[in-house]
Please model this.
Amino acid sequence: MQPDISNITDSWHEVDQLISQLQAWGVTYLVGLEHDAHSSSLQREQMFPATLIKLLAQCNEYPRVRDASISLFLLHPELADSILEALQESEPGVAEQIAVLTLATIYLQRLWSVRLTLALGYPPCFPEQRFAFLWRSRNLPPPACHYGKWGLLALQEYEQKRTGLPFTYIGDWQNQVDHLLLQEEAKHHQLAVKITLPGDEQDC
Model:
């Protein structure tokens, strides 16, 4: 039975439940108060991925937990269908937050493709083109433009205008990738592919 997300608020207990969910999906660098994952009433098998994505997008009082969606998407590109489902089912504000986190994932994947490949043991494969409508509808650069750098800058400016807050969102998004890289590098994955450096992409 799925949890009623209409009553979810940003309490420590509920945030701990989300952290437990993320840990079950392999995002283990976040630590909550409840260290025993089995004590949570919202286990991975009890929550649809689209539900988790929507709940994370609403976790605004704890942006580090909210933004961990970026690591979740990088580790599990197969969640693309669930992201699209969450976008369609959510109210506009939540859907917009999901869209921003998805775009940040896409741009950061381009920017850090080589190091992510070394850390994971395989090239990151979050499906960019399935979400092309997100950057096109917001007049943002495609991810191939300067390895995602311009897209990240434009996305930050877009988010500053949307929220009315002058935060350096890029630093928060990058922080997630930094933690993910450290987490995966510590596992010493065997590289399954030959590394090739990206060429000069100017698809802008």
